[in-house]
Amino acid sequence: MKVKGKHVIFSLVFLVLGYMLAFSYHLTKNEHNSSEITDRQWERTLDLREQLIDQEETNRELQEELNQKQTKVLKIEQQLSNEAQIFFNLAEDIEKYRMFLGKVGVKGEGVQITLADGDYDPEEENINNYLVHEHHVFKVVNELYISGASAIAINGQRLSHNSYILCDGPVITIDGYQHPAPFVVTALGDPDIMSSALSLTGGVKDQLVNDNIIFTIEKKDQIVIEPKLGS
User: Fold this and answer.
1) What whole-number distance in Å separates Cα of residue 205 and Cα of residue 220?
2) Fold that domain 106-225 belongs to in CATH
3) Distance between CA atoms of residues 181 and 155, nearest Å
4) N or C: which end of the chain has fewer CB within 10 A?
5) Are the CB atoms for 218 and 112 separated by under 8 Å?
6) Full DSSP string of 67-130
7) pLDDT tens by residue, 26-49
8) Domain boundary assignment for the chain
9) What is the C-alpha separation between 138 and 133, in angstroms, rounded?
10) What does pTM read for this prediction?
């Protein structure tokens, strides 16, 4: 009975020991498997991090390339803007030259001057002393140009840079076309400046009045001057 009891005790001891060994093996195996999973995850994490770094480097390079292209586009836009401004200035200059040459009709504010022969004086021996002559018209035209007139016409006939005015008795000839008095001079420009320039004391108006010429001037809000004849 004692021997059997010892066998039973030893059996229980071995059983418990076996269980402990089995449990320890199982626990060690699980820890080993857990360690293997953790290592794989770490490797995956490192791989993803390297991919992220590579992608960030690629993005940085692309951003630098984009910045360079944007800078190039800005330079091209600036160049085009400068060229557009140059073309705009050229177009303005061409329009000014065409207006100066009398090639286009113009309209705007300005002045209208009328030069009429003086009243007949039977005591005056020389009739030319109260007629409007080309030099009277020249004085008015020159003063208008000096005071900023952009276009001038006489009796509706447009003047240009090479126009000529000749006196032929009671009429004047402008570029081959004759005009009788009174002579209506219309000028496009600032009416206040031109009117003041002509009306200065001792100026053009006083000189013509002293020559017995009837001189009148009006400021106009709207003056239309047609292109030069034959242009």
Assistant:
1) 18
2) Alpha-Beta Plaits (3.30.70)
3) 9
4) N
5) yes
6) HHHHHHHHHHHHHHHHHHHHHHHHHHHHHHHHHHTT-S-EEEEEEEEEEEPPPP-TT-S-GGGG
7) 656 555 555 555 667 777 878 788
8) 1-71, 106-225
9) 9
10) 0.59
